[in-house]
Design brief:
The chain is α/β, with parallel strands linked by helices and 274 residues long. It contains nine helices and nine strands. The longest helix is centred in the last third of the chain and has 30 residues. The N and C termini lie far apart (106 Å).
Length: 274
């Protein structure tokens, strides 16, 4: 109910201001389960895709959105639950298994399930290595994987920016990927990696993004560390420059024990000459 209400209210607003264009929407089935695998550039990705797809899409969202405190936290949790988001703990291990089970439940009910194989937003607009959970999900659910490329959403709302920039964005949907040839191999990590890489290649072709063979989360850590090091270096440089530019104290140059000069009429006594 709330999902439909949000589409009725938010949908026209997004269409009016951002005028999203869509290519390949015919690849999304009118009925039956399917996995929509998308690149992840912006927080707004989970809003634009449901706007252009008539069927309901259930996404996984980080659990932090559901555990906030205070009025804002409760409103945020209610919003994400209302639009069909499922909380996921991204710490790995059993948490990843719980996310997989949640996705399987959605697909077994013949719904559309949206997932970001990179696991988190791209820190710099490039496409990063996919996590193999999507491959296991595809094999266990027998659902087709439909690659979806979000275009330019990082420009309207980069990570950390609250107020979006009004501009046009795009969504490009690719042909469904069928991995039934790997049926029964969901425990083979090499097969899982091969399937995931095939999905990421399809996303790269659709989006035109540069591909980086490392996880986005690791890239974020490297970028954050580089920024910290650069900040420290800048602070040190500024401190050194401040010390170098500091004017010398005239009293430091005076030597009270220095011998009087020939023009010193005081005779070195510190008293005026008679």
């Amino acid at each position: 109910m709330f999902y439909r209400l949000m589409k009725i209210i938010v949908g026209p607003v997004l269409r009016l201001f951002f005028r999203p264009w869509v290519e390949g929407e015919e690849h999304i089935p009118d009925r039956g389960p399917a996995i929509l695998a998308s690149n992840h550039l912006s927080f707004s990705d989970s809003f634009f895709l449901p706007v252009v797809v008539p069927r309901r899409i259930t996404f996984l969202a980080k659990s932090d959105y559901f555990t906030g405190r205070g009025v804002k936290g409760r409103l945020t949790a209610a919003f994400f639950k209302g639009v069909g988001q499922l909380p996921v703990d991204r710490s790995g291990g059993r948490a990843s298994e719980a996310a997989l089970d949640a996705g399987l439940k959605v697909l077994r009910e013949d719904h559309l399930f949206g997932i970001y194989p990179e696991g988190t937003r791209s820190p710099d607009g490039r496409l990063y290595r996919g996590k193999t959970g999507i491959a296991r999900l595809a094999l266990e659910s027998h659902a087709p994987v439909i690659p979806v490329a979000m275009i330019d959403t990082e420009k309207i709302q980069p990570p950390g920016k609250i107020v979006p920039k009004v501009m046009r964005v795009g969504i490009r949907v690719g042909e469904p990927l069928d991995f039934s040839r790997y049926e029964g191999m969901e425990d083979d990590r090499f097969i899982l990696r091969a399937i995931t890489d095939e999905i990421m290649y399809a996303l790269m072709e659709l989006s035109g993004q540069e591909y980086v063979d490392m996880y986005a989360a690791d890239a974020k850590k490297r970028i954050d560390e580089a920024r910290k090091q650069a900040s420290k270096a800048a602070d040190k440089t500024a401190g050194d420059k401040t010390a170098a530019d500091k004017p010398a104290d005239p009293t430091d140059a005076a030597d009270p024990d220095a011998a009087p000069t020939p023009n010193d009429d005081s005779g070195g006594s510190g008293r005026p000459a008679a």
